[in-house]
């Protein structure tokens, strides 16, 4: 029985080792403030690689550990060529960090740094994600097509509610109040919402002209009535 158990353990260890030696370009790991060297940023920068750092996550309830997770940063490193677990582990050991994990989906991992898709967790602004070494995560934060439509619908509702007749009014509001979602959408592509605002403005002018005509007709009718009475 002991022999079988040993064989099973040996196979399990071999399987884990094989998994760890898989190669990929993007890796992620945690850094804890209470164990990381003070110069941990410099240690990563010393490898001359693009990498990103999440806002400090202050710890969340962790059912698996029956307690609260320690404050930590999420880090993603982007290598120009594939790296093995062992190669990346050399870096995390210098940071006193847990073992690295392969990034299965870069977009999802980047968005997780700000909990953009985890409504039950503390929310952060994407602007709080810090890029180092020339890392560019803009494409990973770009809304999906369905999300983009939802943003346009929100902007259109704001335009209606605030009687917005000029694009600059929406632009100013988005820059100040909705910099993380509305503003990038407007800057990169705003033809529909521009056309909608222009249509509202034209409609308002047409209505104003119609009211002016109606008022003029009523005035003429009143004058004519007064003439007949005299």
Structure explained in plain terms:
It is a single chain. With 230 residues, this protein is α+β, with helices and mostly antiparallel strands. The protein folds into two domains: 120 residues, Replication Protein E1, Chain: A, CATH 3.40.1310; 85 residues, no CATH class. Helix content is 53%, strand content 13%. It contains nine helices and seven strands. The strands form two sheets. The protein has a five-stranded antiparallel beta sheet with strand order 6-1-5-2-7. A two-stranded antiparallel sheet has the order 3-4. β3 and β4 form a beta hairpin. The longest helix has 39 residues. It is rod-shaped, with a radius of gyration of 30 Å. The relative contact order is 0.10. About 2% of the residues have low confidence.
Summing up helix and strand content along with how strands pair, one would put the structural category as alpha+beta
Query: Using DSSP, what is the number of strands?
Result: 7
Categorize the overall geometry: rod-shaped
Run of helices and strands: HEHEEEEHEHEHHHHH
Question: What are the key terms here?
Answer:
230 residues; Replication Protein E1, Chain: A; 2 domains; two-stranded antiparallel ribbon; 9 helices
């Amino acid at each position: 029985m002991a022999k079988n158990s040993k064989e099973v353990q040996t196979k399990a260890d071999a399987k884990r080792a094989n998994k760890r030696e898989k190669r990929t370009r993007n890796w992620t790991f945690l850094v804890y403030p209470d164990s990381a060297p003070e110069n941990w940023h410099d240690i990563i920068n010393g490898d001359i690689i693009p990498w990103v750092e999440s806002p400090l996550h202050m710890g969340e309830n962790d059912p698996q550990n029956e307690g609260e997770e320690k404050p930590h940063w999420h880090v993603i490193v982007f290598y120009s060529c594939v790296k093995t677990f062992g190669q990346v582990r050399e870096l995390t050991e210098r940071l006193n960090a847990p073992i690295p994990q392969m990034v299965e989906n870069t977009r999802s991992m980047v968005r997780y740094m700000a909990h953009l898709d985890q409504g039950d967790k503390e929310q952060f602004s994407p602007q709080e994600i810090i890029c180092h070494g020339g890392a560019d995560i803009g494409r990973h934060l770009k809304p999906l097509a369905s999300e983009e439509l939802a943003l346009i619908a929100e902007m259109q509702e704001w335009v209606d509610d605030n009687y917005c007749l000029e694009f600059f009014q929406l632009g100013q509001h988005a820059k100040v109040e909705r910099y993380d979602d509305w503003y990038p959408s407007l800057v990169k592509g705003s033809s529909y919402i521009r056309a909608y605002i222009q249509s509202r403005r034209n409609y308002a002018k047409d209505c104003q002209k119609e009211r002016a005509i109606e008022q003029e007709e009523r005035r003429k009718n009143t004058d004519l009535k007064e003439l007949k009475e005299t």
